[in-house]
Amino acid sequence: MKVRNLLLLLLGSIFFLGLGYKYFEWSTLNKLSSYQSNFDVKEFDTNLQQQKAGKEVTDLMDSDSEKESKLTEDEQLNQFDKIIGKSNLYTDLSKDYLNLLKENLNYYMKLEKSSKFLLGKRGSFAKDLIKNQISYYQKEIENAEEGVAGNELFVNIYKILKDFNILLTYDVKGTANQKNYSANFSDVAILEKYTREDFKFTDEDNIKTFFTYGYEVLNKYKNYFSSYYEMTKDFVSGDEESASYKYATFQKDSIELNIDFDKITDEGAEKQINRSKAIIGITLNKISNIKRFKNDNLGYFPFLKKIESWKEDLVLCQLYSYKASLFQNITKKTIKFSNIDELFNELSQVSPKSDELDKVFNREVLTIKGLEEKEKYITFECKDEATGIVYPFDVTKED
User: Fold this and answer.
1) Which tens digit of pLDDT belongs to each residue from 14-45?
2) Per-residue pLDDT tens for 266-284?
3) 48: exposed, middle or buried (C-beta count within 10 Å: 0-12, 13-18, 19+)?
4) By three-state DSSP, how is residue 178 classified?
5) What's the order of all strands across the beta sheet hosting 390-396?
6) Do 225 and 278 contact (CB within 8 A), yes or no?
């Protein structure tokens, strides 16, 4: 009797352990599905806020270049302030995106620990997807960190250009009548900060890490402004001998101010392209795994809610816009197509390829706008089938 009771107890324990394991398996996979669908949507939202702010900066710059010759001195300075203000907003949103990525990575890293106890097909799927997502976030965080540094570099350069504009206006007045150097010296008081030993540009250390030439350019302008201010300060105070001595330093700094702005723009481009390719490959692998999970019906558990809220077609839709941008970065030309088939054909020229996923992609999710030549952007409108919300991802056309 005791043996029989022990066997029943053992069988009951195994049964309940099995139920417990199945619930743990379902819970982990359900959490993974929730992370993937919710995190991606949050990242899309933040990305679109960035996109909007970036377009506002571009529009301001285009407007500035069109009417620059017609602007008064005060209007030019006001335009610089507007661009700097909008750029700061864009940078803040870039930092929000970076923080969101880091936060989401932490969730996956915690889930990785519990997923180690999963077995079988579902266990392999969970471990592969979590590993995939961790790799994705590590790469995307690198991208975002470089993006923040690049944005700060851009803001610093625009602050420099504003100060340079002030210097030129002051110098033109002084050249016309040397008395104006003394009378208007307060106009260039803004340059005094560059003479201080403790002066640093905003986010200077990160800029130095990601953009060596950009950092070099900032320092060239710093030296130029510093030597100009020191020389002019001595001149207006009547110490012409000292001003004449400092003129040699200013002349040297002027000669070194031969800036290659194309080099600033292109710096780090190759690393960016390689990182983008890696991100595309990781994302394609994630989508393929989710498709297999659904095809194998691994989301079905008796008496529990089916796991199916993955949003893989929404992710793939956004990936097409990302890949179109990569295509243009590599080819240096605007991607040309008139329908989705032609889009897929063009994108297949750039690795990693998505040919197999293209065949099973739900095309009703994607609407493409802006193909007319007059438009500045190609817009990939990606629809979330679960909510009906449309996410418009823009790709700027190459000039």
Assistant:
1) 544 445 667 778 888 888 888 888 888 899 89
2) 888 888 889 999 999 999 8
3) middle
4) coil
5) 366-369, 377-383, 390-396
6) no
